[in-house]
From TrEMBL:
Xref: PROSITE patterns: COX3
Organism: Spongiibacter nanhainus
Protein name as it appears in the record: Cytochrome bo(3) ubiquinol oxidase subunit 3
Molecular function via GO: cytochrome bo3 ubiquinol oxidase activity; cytochrome-c oxidase activity
Keyword tags: Cell membrane, Electron transport, Membrane, Oxidoreductase, Transmembrane, Transmembrane helix, Transport
Protein's gene: cyoC
GO terms under biological process: aerobic electron transport chain
Presence of keyword Membrane: yes
GO cellular component: plasma membrane
Length: 209
């Protein structure tokens, strides 16, 4: 919003800005992030649907019941679910304005996220080694597409978490960093919910087929 000032003869017209307030919509970032998560839901819904359609398309090759290591997958699941709990502790520390406690619990969350990724990469490597790579059949293509996309999201979450730790160390618990912690919290818990679906629909049901 601007207001023009009548200029004297021979002088150029000048403009004076009167509205210097912040035009950022309250909670606009959180709303935008919710919209992003809804779009991510559509991506995973499509991947789950694809897996469901191709769940019996083995092309004469191995099935999930032949190769899945449920104890290993259960261990990996515990890593991700525990990371959701530790992130909750980080949120509690932030609400109490404890910077160091927030950083410690976020760091623990990152370690658990990396542990999850390490086990998943080990599983992928083993499956490819025994001839059950994504090119083996439509079933394994759908499996790697769904589980791999989730793993990619976890990787992005870990990178985001490390970046957030650097920002917290530099700027502390200011308004912007609190907003970032909230957004990453929604993203991280969303990945946990998706993984519960993957564990149930892909691994448990796949082991019984």
């Amino acid at each position: 919003m601007s207001h023009s000032v009548n200029a004297a003869p021979g002088r150029a017209q000048q403009f004076e800005f009167l509205d210097t307030s912040d035009h950022h919509v309250p909670n606009g970032t959180l709303l935008g992030f919710w919209i992003y998560l809804m779009s991510d839901c559509l991506i995973f819904a499509a991947l789950f649907a694809t897996y469901g359609v191709l769940a019996q398309s083995y092309a004469g090759g191995p099935t999930g019941a032949d190769l899945f290591d449920l104890p290993l997958v259960a261990l990996n699941t515990s890593f991700l679910l525990l990371s959701s709990i530790t992130y909750g502790f980080a949120m509690l520390q932030m609400q109490q304005n404890r910077l160091r406690g927030t950083q410690v619990w976020l760091a623990i969350t990152g370690v658990l996220g990396l542990s999850f990724l390490a086990v998943e990469l080990y599983e992928f490597n083993h499956l490819i080694y025994v001839g059950a790579g994504p090119q083996r059949s439509a079933y394994w293509s759908a499996f790697f597409g769904l589980v791999g996309t989730h793993g990619l999201h976890v990787s992005v979450g870990v990178i985001w978490l490390v970046t957030l730790l650097v920002q917290l160390n530099k700027y502390g618990l200011n308004v912007a960093n609190r907003r970032r912690v909230y957004c990453l919290s929604m993203f991280w818990h969303f990945l946990d919910v998706v993984w519960i679906g993957v564990f149930t629909f892909v691994y448990l049901m796949g082991s019984m087929s």
